[in-house]
Every structure is written in structure tokens, then in C-alpha cells.
Amino acid sequence: MSAFTSILALVGPSEDAAPASPPFRDGGTTQPSAQSNAERVSSERVASMQLPASSAQRSLIALSAMIGALVLVSLWGLAVNPVAIGTSLRNASTVPMLLLVSALVCLPAIVVFMRIFVYAPGRVSSLFLSYGLGAFAGSLTMAALAPVIALYYHSSHAAGPLVAKISVVVGLAVGTMIFTRVSARLAKPETTSSLVAIGTRWLTAALLVTGQLAVIAQLASTVDPILDHRTRFGQGIDGAASFDEAKERPHQAPSEGGASQ
Amino acid sequence: MKPLGLFAFAIFAAAITVLFILRRRLKETVKLEEAESILNEEYAHLQKEEKHSW
Q1: Residue from B23, B28, B39, B47 whose CB has the most chain A CBs within 10 Å, to mutate
Q2: Does the pLDDT of residue A156 top 70, yes or no?
Q3: Phi, psi of A49 (to 5 degrees)
Q4: Is residue B38 less than 8 Å (CB to CB) from chain A?
Q5: Positive or negative CA dihedral for A65, A182, A175, A211?
Q6: Closest-approach residue (CA) in chain B for A52
Q7: Average of pLDDT values for A170-196?
Q8: What is the pLDDT of residues A218-260, one digit of tens each?
Q9: pTM of the full predicted structure?
Q10: How far apart (Å, rounded) are the C-alpha atoms in residues A126 and A42?
């Protein structure tokens, strides 16, 4: 499928490699005489990097990447805590739910932030494409580590959850890196090397990751735990608040039933 | 599972449905854009030929 080959081409590091047949046509290159020099340079750059030219193409690739990401995190959910088939199936539906709903909650705020504060923000469809590809790359990493997680869960009680948490951190790091890389590729040519543009790009990524983690933690507190126990992250804001209260009042006796989950 | 969790699952199901519908629509749009691009190329080619013929 052309959308998925485009996803893999965009996620990859080679910027100058141009395949023989481009996945999408660039509608703007048919009448070069009517274009300004900057537009021509921009369209040539788009063509050489195999970037989707129109908003519909970007949105299509972003949606395909997001669907792929949901399938991949579902595979990761199957591998985590495989004590029973019911638990695995529940995880396989819970983990994509956390990813998609948190994205739906976070992305509008990031779009507003980008429009107001970010220098040379670009198009909204470019942000969606960057986000979709970042989510796809992170999910791909997590799915690739899923067999290792399943092995550790089956062979060790202590190491299984730890390996699962490490895989999430690695997936998050890869996703953030791909998000910023694709954002840089989609940015206007004159702003790709600007220090302010790079800074705001990383700030957008940091805000997106922080906001999405906060939303995932809060959502996770409303559903059954994914790992074999409920972690502090999975308790949402209450977990962090109880941690602070415990630090502030170390001598107070715990309330009845307060240590549940 | 809390009621909010069930609500989140309902949103998830609705969002998945919308994702697939949007994807199908976008596929059609991209095909139309490709066809338009081909037509533009053909038109430019014909115009060039017409100029040469005069």
C-alpha cells in the first residue's frame, strides 16, 4: 500500500534517498513558470524528500500511521501480563484506547499552542503527520520488544513489569525523536536550521509528551491495571498527590482502605 | 472499571469508526487529486503542442 510505504519512507533517516517511483504526485509542479522561486525550491525539496504535497495526502498518511500504531500497541498489550487469555485481550483493547483517547484530548491544545506561540508553525496537517509518524515509530519499537516482554513475564515475576516499563520509555523516546525529525522535514526550508524554530519544535514535542503522559496516567486510573499491579503512574494525579501528602505528613497513620490497588 | 473508563472506551470505539471513515474519504480525495494532476499535465502538454503548431 502506498500510504504505508510512505510512512516507512518518512520515518527512515535517509533524506536524500529518492525511490524510482514517487508515492504521490506533486500537483504544483505542472506549471513551473507560474511559480515563484521560493515555491519552486519548496516543491523541489518536497519532491526530493518524498514528502506528501497536499493536505489530503498528509492527513491520509497520518491516519494510516495512527491506525498502524493502534494495531502495534495492541500487540504490545497482548504480550504484557499474559497470565490469562482474558487479561491479554483486555490489555489489547485498553492500550490502544489509552493512546487514541489521550491523542484526541491532547492534540487540540497543542494545535492552539502551535498556532499562537510557535515560530513558523506550518500546517495543522503537518503536525498530525508528525504526530502520527511519531506514534507509529514508538509503537513499532514497543511491538518489536513485545516478545522480550512476554519471555520475561513468563520466566520472572520481578523482571517482567520492569522490562515492560523500559520498553514504554524506549518507545516514547523513539516516538519523540521521530516526531521532531518529521516536523523538521516538513518545516519551511528557511526555518529548518533556525535556532528558535528548533527550540520551539522541541518545546512542542516536550509539551505533547508531557500532556499525553498526564492524560494517559489519568485515563489509566479509570480502567483495570495493564501490568499485574497498579503502579504509581497508573494511579493518575491521585497517586502523585498521595505521594506528596505522605511526604508532608510522615507520622500520620494511613486511613482505612487507603492502600488499596 | 470506573464509569469514566467505560466512557473512554465508548469514545475510543467512536474515534476508531471515524478514523476509518475519514481514511476512506481521504483516499478518494487523494485519487481525485492525482487524476487532476494528470489532467493538468496533459493540458499543459496540449497547450505546448498547440503553440508549436501555430
Answers
A1: B23
A2: yes
A3: -95, 5
A4: yes
A5: negative
A6: B30
A7: 82
A8: 888 888 888 877 777 777 777 777 655 555 455 444 444 443 3
A9: 0.76
A10: 15
